[in-house]
Each structure stands twice: as structure tokens, then as C-alpha cells.
Amino acid sequence: MQRRSDAARQYFTDHVVEPFTRMRDEVEQMMGDIPTRWPSPYPASRLATLAPFPAIEMTETDDTYKVSVEVPGVAPGEIDLSVQQDMLVIKGEKREEHEEKGRDFSRSERVYGSFERRLRLPDDARSEDIEASSRDGVLTIAIPRDSESRNAARHIPIKGHEAAK
């Protein structure tokens, strides 16, 4: 009986444990061949600037809606801002070049990408009076509100059948 359990243990070791041990050894050897300092193509600090859609923050007051759009590295002349029907459309193209040289490496990157954001304008927005400015990579859009439209409200009667008594 002891011979059978020894044979089963040997079979398990040879056919299950050993292949995984060899695979682990090969992976460790491959990892040892990788240089300790791989230059990252997109450092974490730049990931946000490579996003296809710029970040937007919206706030409102009694008189104005304010939209702030993060567009670092994009010149104001490279941004197309328009109103199409009831949509505010923000279009542009981000072009960025980066070169880094170190003692043992050299890296050059070029990042190009178009973006477009569409925001539905509120019913009380006065689209003909929208103004925009840009400073330090932030596009600020001021959308005036129409006080008459904002305060307009009407009661809507509900039609229905009376419940049976």
C-alpha cells in the first residue's frame, strides 16, 4: 500500500508541480533580463493631458452658467467654439511633443489628437450672448441666463378618469 501512495506522490510531482516550477523559473529569468529602468512612454503626470475629452466643470448663478474646460497646451486660436441648434460645441486638436534624454537613454514623443465636446444648452440660456476667454490652459465660457424664461412656469392639468366608487 505504501508503494502506491509513493507512486501517486511522484506522479503528482512530475506532472503537476514540476511544469509550474519550470514555468516560474523561466518567467523569473525573463524578468531578470528586463532593464531595471524602462522609460515610461506616458508618465502619470501627463496621462490627464492625453485624455481624448477635456475635463469640464459647470457652475451656475442666478444670472449666468459658467463652463470651464481644461485644454492645456492648446492655443485659444486652435479651439473652435460654436452653438449648433441647442448645443454648445467645443472642438480642438492637441499637439504635444516631448523629448527626454538621460545618460543611458533618449526618448522622443509626439502626441496628436482631436477632441470634441457637446453640451446641451439649458432652456433659459441666451446663446447669442455667450462669451469665452482663455487663460493658463483653461477655457472659460459664460452663458447668460434669460430671467423671463427662467421664471416662466405653467400649471399642467392632468386628465383622467375618476375612480369607481
UniProtKB/TrEMBL annotation:
Identify the residues that the record assigns to the SHSP domain, covering every copy.
47-161
According to the record, the residues making up region (Disordered) are 141-165
Q: Which domain of life is it from?
A: Bacteria
This protein's UniProt keywords: Stress response
Any transmembrane segments, and where? none
Q: Which CDD domains match?
A: ACD_sHsps-like (cd06464)
Q: Which Pfam families match?
A: HSP20
Query: Would I find Ubl conjugation among this entry's keywords?
Result: no
| GO biological process, any | response to heat
Record carries keyword Oxidoreductase: no
Family under the similarity heading = Belongs to the small heat shock protein (HSP20) family.
Under what name is this protein listed?
SHSP domain-containing protein
Which organism was this protein described from? Aurantiacibacter marinus
